Amino acid sequence: MLKIRLARGGAKKRPYYSIVVADSHSPRDGRFIEKVGAYNPLLKKDDPQRLVLKGERVTEWLGKGAQPTERVARFLSLQGLATWEHGTNPTKGEPHAKAKERVKEREDRATAHAAAEAEAAEAAVAAAAEAAAHPAVEETVEEPVAEEVPVAEDAAEPPVEG
């Protein structure tokens, strides 16, 4: 199967891409059939040299059955050579099974904690109501009296005369 795709060139941290027609089994930067354009991502978006395409050759290869990759299809749609639409993946942001289990466990713990708090509050209200219904006998609690301890003066130190 023929693909119209990007082949990376340039130096490290300085990418430059050639838009090529290649067999889908050949390596990304390897053998290709024809170079049909170039893409320089380092240039400003409004620069005409950022994306250069040979429109006639691209339409000819598309007519022969070459399939553009996702990124190249975007470029071609900007030039009006092909149509491209956003892919639809309705489950893209949905969490996986383990994450769903963790959320469910967290919700179960929260409901159990809320139920325990509600029971404790009901028990406190019931205890307060029972205490109000049966007045308790007031008990006098004697506080322990602190004993006074005589303070002894140090006899070892002689008085200081001035």
Summarize this entry quickly.
35% of the residues lie in helices and 19% in strands. It has 162 residues and is of the alpha+beta class.
Characterize the structure shown.
This protein has a domain at 2-79: Ribosomal protein S16 (S16 Ribosomal Protein, Chain: A, 2-Layer Sandwich), CATH 3.30.1320.10. A five-stranded mixed beta sheet has the order 4-3-2-1-5. It has helices at residues 55-63, 70-79, 97-133, and strands spanning 2-11, 14-23, 34-39, 51-53, 67-68. The protein is elongated. Helix content is 35%, strand content 19%. The longest helix has 37 residues, at 97-133. Strand 1 and strand 2 (14-23) form a beta hairpin. It has 162 residues and is α+β, with helices and mostly antiparallel strands. The protein contains three helices and five strands; from the N terminus they run E-E-E-E-H-E-H-H.
Topology (SSEs and partners):
Layout lengths: L1 E10 L2 E10 L10 E6 L11 E3 L1 H9 L3 E2 L1 H10 L17 H37 L29
Parallel strand pairs: 1-5
Antiparallel strand pairs: 1-2, 2-3, 3-4
If strands are numbered along the chain, what order do they take across the biggest sheet? Answer: 4-3-2-1-5
Helix content: 25-40%
Radius of gyration: 42 Å
Largest sheet: 5 strands, mixed
Shape: elongated
**What's the average pLDDT?**
85
In angstroms, what separates the terminal alpha carbons? 114 Å
**CATH superfamily descriptor of the domain at 2-79:** Ribosomal protein S16
Strand percentage lies at 15-25%
Low-confidence stretches: none
Secondary-structure-derived class: alpha+beta
Helix/strand order, N-terminal first: EEEEHEHH
